[in-house]
Amino acid sequence: SVVSESTTLEDFEKSKAPLLDYLANAGCLRPMRSIGDRDLLVHDIVMFQVIYRVQCPFQRYSVGCFLKSRHPDSFCPLFCFEPSPLTADLMDDLFSIHLSPEGSNKRVEEGPSKLQKILAFATGASVVSPIGFSRSPSIQFIHRGDDDFSCTLMFPMANTCVNCIMLPLHVSYLLFKEKFDFALGNTYGSSFYLCC
């Protein structure tokens, strides 16, 4: 507005001086020979502010609208949150395991011996062989009302022929842990294994 209110060429040059960087960025560097050039500069500034400055973002927006009309679901993940289903891999990535100090009795209970028992329960092997397993170990769930639920007395079962643990769903974690620990500690020669 100071530029447009200049009445002499000297006032015009003074009002333009603090804006030189802006004018250079806007591409408004026309030579000013008379006070009449003031209106041309004001026109250039208005064109830059109103049209040219927003032209690129508008074009990008137009391209985005065009793409959205042809592929309406492609932008949804960018702007709309949709919870993904929980998977074992996702849960594994979410949690970090905090073990007790190495060498402590608690660490012995938390460590490899418990994991070896779980592996042995599911596969019959206490270590992973160099060639792995012909069938990847898996977990299935036993629901109330399933035939297997009542006959197991709610204990986990395993089928070592297909490397599978079948876990009954309990109403509390403590009950599940109690039944699972009992099954792990009493698997050799017991009925917790299913035969092939």
Automatic annotation (TrEMBL):
Q: Which UniProt keywords apply?
A: Transferase, Ubl conjugation pathway
- Looking at the keywords, is Transferase present? yes
Report the residue ranges that make up the HECT domain in this protein: 116-195
Q: Which SUPFAM superfamilies match?
A: Hect, E3 ligase catalytic domain
Query: What are this entry's molecular-function GO terms?
Result: ubiquitin-protein transferase activity
Q: One Pfam annotation, family name?
A: HECT
Catalytic residues per the record? C161
> Keyword Transferase, does the record have it?
yes
Question: Superkingdom of the source?
Answer: Eukaryota
Q: What is this protein called?
A: HECT domain-containing protein
Q: Which organism is it from?
A: Sphaeramia orbicularis (orbiculate cardinalfish)
